[in-house]
């Protein structure tokens, strides 16, 4: 993962009481609710509040954020009003050159209503056609791109993670005027370790899904079943390797299975591509949330400590200058049952080809959804768009 150009120190902690175990646990649990292409992405609880000593803290949003970042340590405040958190998932792989132009693999907005009693999780398709603003700091001139390229060009030429998040936030803001209050970035490899400590998750697979990343040889070895082209598209199959298939139905998935399942978009039974993948990621978020707060996890101190240990180094957080325990207290009513997952474009493809490149276009109603996030009127939007709510 590229280093950020600017790092905000969490500041001195002397003279301040150490947060109780339950508060630190909730901070970590909130952060766990974000998944990126494999993993995911984000937490209605305290995702952005994971400003714990074991988490990498940076000023990710800079001037793009709603909260001023001048202070050098978190301040205890009363959190009021609606809050929107930008969640970015990266799928950094072993052997990948850290200087490569890395596009955001998952982009989500977690909106917590002003009453702090419910949250809304919205995925933005990574192929969405947008005009990315210029970034003088990296030399990017701006122009029409897929939205996931905003992160790549912001991180370009030394911009790092912080530069990527800022340009992505500005791009989203240019669509509907949303200004994030906080942000989090999580990488695939680190998150898989966390899910492994949890012992996997229980999920209901809603469509037959064939993996393009994992298959088995005749001897049972796990191998890639397909070649992946340089542009990320699916290439020819590899002889002697049978792809893993996730059949419809409810079952327990090991960490590697769950992360592989939610990465898939090419060979889905319903041919819903990124929309199927987004839906599966959102379902995964809820599954993780429930697993963390299950009796089997909360009463197992060894497992809890393992989760905390696995999270170290797996994420980068910008908590907006607000202390983690304040986020925990303010968002305590947001639970799996009050977290609503929503489909952009009603989960239906809306393609557009420009100069030979395929894009996805946000419908006017999807733009209205983003504006409803900005205005904290998502409830009103959903009254007329009940079919936009994803099932768990």
Any chance you could write out the topology, listing elements then pairs?
Elements: H1 21-31, E1 34-36, E2 39-41, E3 56-57, E4 83-90, E5 106-112, E6 119-123, E7 129-132, E8 143-146, H2 148-155, H3 160-176, E9 182-187, H4 188-198, E10 201-205, E11 209-216, E12 222-223, E13 226-228, E14 234-237, E15 242-246, E16 249-253, H5 255-261, H6 273-292, H7 295-298, H8 301-311, E17 315-318, H9 324-330, E18 339-342, E19 351-354, E20 357-360, H10 364-375, H11 378-383
Parallel strand pairs: 3-17, 4-9, 6-18
Antiparallel strand pairs: 1-2, 4-5, 5-6, 7-8, 9-17, 10-16, 11-12, 11-15, 13-14, 19-20
Short synopsis of the structure:
This protein has 392 residues and is an alpha+beta fold.
Query: What is the subunit arrangement here?
Result: single chain
Mean pLDDT: 79
Largest sheet: 7 strands, mixed
Rg from alpha-carbon coordinates: 20 Å
Query: Structural class from helices and strands?
Result: alpha+beta
List the uncertain runs. Answer: 1-20, 25-54, 68-72
Q: Hey, roughly how much beta strand do the residues contain?
A: 15-25%
- Strand tally is 20
| Count of helix runs | 11
- First-to-last CA distance: 31 Å
From the spread of the alpha carbons, the general shape counts as globular
For the biggest β-sheet, the strand order reads: 3-17-9-4-5-6-18
